[in-house]
Amino acid sequence: MISLYTNYKQMGGMDMLKKRIGIYIYFKQNKFIRQLKRYGHLIYVNKDKKYLLLYIDESDVSQTIKELERLKYVSDIIVSQYPNIKREYSRENHEARDYRVI
Q1: 56-89 pLDDT, tens per residue?
Q2: Which 3 state secondary structure label does DSSP give 80?
Q3: CA torsion 49→72→64→80, rounded to 10°?
Q4: Of 56, 33, 61, which is closest to residue 45 (Cα–Cα)?
Q5: Rounded to an integer, what is the distance from CA 3 to the centroid of its chain?
Q6: DSSP helix/strand/coil, 69
């Protein structure tokens, strides 16, 4: 057990987690889902609206998008904006407000 911990510590501990980002890929026919799975980690598929969500490494985003744009069965690619969204909110004192309707 100690050797596993030392190897983990030598590899950088928590730094070994890679940053990933989601991309939404719209395709023309459902039969191409299997081919698109090889470009990343498949998370979600909507067969009615014909799109899927893939997670890929942030370092490979530009190269993967270039490869996907060359495919004839891909109609649109959207990169997730989740990393740009503010996720920390300041606490507001809602109890101090008077919401009574007069």
Answers
A1: 999 999 999 999 999 999 999 999 988 888 877 7
A2: coil
A3: -20
A4: 33
A5: 33
A6: helix
Give the chain's mean pLDDT: 82
Whole-number CA gyration radius for the chain = 21
Residue corresponding to tokens 């989601």:
22
Exposure b/e, 66-79, CB count within 10 A at least 16 = b:
eebeebeebeebee
d(CA 41, CA 29): 20
The single-letter DSSP state of residue 11 is T
* Nearest Cα to Cα of residue 36 among 25, 47, 44, 28: 25
Give the model's pLDDT for residue 42.
95
Tokens matching residue 76: 């649109």
Contact 64, 39 (CB under 8 A): yes
